[in-house]
Design a protein that fits this description.
Layout: H1 2-43, H2 46-56, H3 62-69, H4 73-93
Helix pairs in contact: 2-4, 3-4
Length: about 100
């Protein structure tokens, strides 16, 4: 029984080390993606950037965004679709699989 308990303690310690390493790696990747997203947003025209931010940062509805900027909902949807495609291409170019 003691041998089993000793192995369990060793396994838990190894798991703790692995979890700590995983947290570090995930934190690094999250920071990398945030940095790339910021750089990507800087490349967008102002209108596209504002629409994208209203939808995905402030979680405004399509209707709210359209009303805020005086445009049709279809234009907002099209703009978001195009921006998402540009973002996907940008991240893939930077080595982030989407």
């Amino acid at each position: 029984m003691k041998l089993h308990y000793k192995n369990l303690k060793q396994n838990l310690r190894v798991l703790q080390i692995l979890l700590h390493h995983l947290e570090f790696v995930l934190s690094f990747h999250i920071h990398q993606v945030v940095y790339l997203l910021s750089r990507f947003l800087d490349t967008l025209p102002k209108e596209s950037r504002l629409i994208f931010m209203r939808r995905y940062w402030y979680t405004d509805s399509i209707r709210e965004i359209a009303a805020r900027y005086g445009m049709g909902e279809s234009k907002v949807k099209t703009q978001l679709h195009r921006t998402r495609n540009k973002l996907r291409q940008y991240l893939e170019k930077e080595g982030i699989a989407v």
